[in-house]
Specification:
By secondary structure, the chain is mostly beta strands. The protein contains one helix and 27 strands. It folds into four domains: 82 residues, Immunoglobulin-like (Sandwich), CATH 2.60.40.60; 98 residues, Immunoglobulin-like (Sandwich); 109 residues, Immunoglobulin-like (Sandwich), CATH 2.60.40; 42 residues, Immunoglobulin-like. A hairpin with a 6-residue loop joins strand 24 and strand 25. GO terms for molecular function: calcium ion binding.
Length: 360
């Protein structure tokens, strides 16, 4: 019997034979007591009695697939004689059970550096039916195009694999619905929530906005030379950056706002670092090559650099210097008028007009 057989259905069982006559012949049938089946006895015009098995309640193959009953035929003699027959009922499957997913919501967390082709996760549904009624086919629905390019679902196994490059900075979260359909057309659905986890795969980048370049050498300390913006596309500690300058130069960085620094001229004593910083002096260095370095808080940390060449403009901060502090000249009294008595030489470390020396 198929398990979808409605209650009230009848199944003829044939009839027994008894060569005796009268009350000694077959008089009735009895059935093993059970809650699912009953027995109806019909009598033909010729007096032959026939037994019919009646289904009283719904069958359920998933609860019990086999039923064993005993049909007994009795006569009316003294003593009563009887015969028995076994009734073996095999309940065949009907597609009366939909698939059931192991989870209503699959919550998945994937690192963004998961290689393409890797198994991301698996969805699984079970079906209590058998045969084709229990064969489940999986498919994705309610999923955006971006997710379709990144994930594929094996319709038979439920394996979801990565088929595109995951990038936390491009997409942090994906959502989809997975459908499981059995061979009889019944289906079930489950939600899939995918969180992409950040890894430290981006180095900080620096962008420079020059404010004052070249810089006069007599510029006062704390003057802003440039503004530096530091950006890191990662999240959390992977995106937290700090910025420094390589070397002991007459400049320092001062935080301005989030991820923004001001490059300023340092004072003679950099009070933050408590180290002497060189004053701007064109005569010592006509330009400075700055290497700005930004590091994030990842493990291991990533670093980005930027270079800035700062030229120093001359200021008239140097007086002329004679080659000798004192000149002593001995002159004969008969020296002719117009004779050169001594040559005085002075130099100036400045450049341009600031370095031109005139004698008075």
């Amino acid at each position: 019997m198929i398990e979808s057989t409605p209650p009230g259905a009848r199944f003829p069982l044939g009839s027994g034979r008894d060569p005796d006559i009268g009350t000694n012949s077959l008089q009735n049938y009895r059935l093993t007591p059970n809650p699912l089946f009953s027995l109806v006895v019909r009598e033909s015009p010729d007096g032959t009695k026939h037994a019919e098995l009646v289904l009283e309640k719904n069958l359920d193959r998933e609860k019990q697939r086999n039923h064993h009953l005993i049909l007994t035929a009795v006569d009316g003699g003294d003593p009563v004689r009887s015969g028995t027959a076994q009734i073996n009922i095999n309940v065949t499957d009907a597609n009366d059970n939909p698939p059931i997913f192991t989870k209503e919501i699959y919550k998945v967390r994937l690192l963004e550096n998961l290689p393409e082709g890797s198994l991301a996760f698996q969805v699984k549904a079970t079906d209590s039916d058998e045969g084709t009624n229990a064969e489940i086919t999986y498919s994705l629905s309610d999923v955006g195009n971006s997710a379709r390019q990144l994930f594929t679902l094996d319709s038979r196994t439920g394996d979801v694999k990565v088929t595109g490059p995951l990038d936390y900075e491009e997409g942090k979260y994906y959502e989809a619905t997975v459908e499981g359909k059995d061979g009889g057309g019944l289906s079930a659905h489950a939600k899939v929530h995918i969180d992409i986890l950040d890894v430290n795969d981006n180095a900080p980048t620096l962008s420079l906005l020059p404010i004052l370049n070249p810089v006069p050498e007599d510029t006062v300390p704390s003057t802003v030379v440039a503004v530096i913006n530091v950006r890191d596309r990662d999240a959390g500690e992977n995106g937290e950056v700090s910025c420094t300058i390589d070397g002991n130069l007459p400049f320092r960085l001062e935080p301005s706002s989030e991820n923004t620094y001001k490059l300023i001229i340092a004072s003679d004593l950099d009070r933050e670092k408590l180290v002497l910083a060189k004053a701007l002096d064109r005569e010592s260095a006509a330009f400075h090559e700055l290497v700005l370095r930004a590091s994030d808080g990842g493990e291991p940390a990533r670093t980005g650099t930027a270079r800035l060449r700062v030229a120093v403009l001359d200021a008239n901060d140097n007086a002329p210097v004679f080659s000798q502090a004192e000149y002593t000249v001995r002159v004969p009294e008969d020296v002719p008028v117009g004779s050169t008595l001594v040559t005085l030489t002075a130099t100036d470390a400045d450049e341009g007009l600031n370095g031109d020396v005139k004698y008075l």
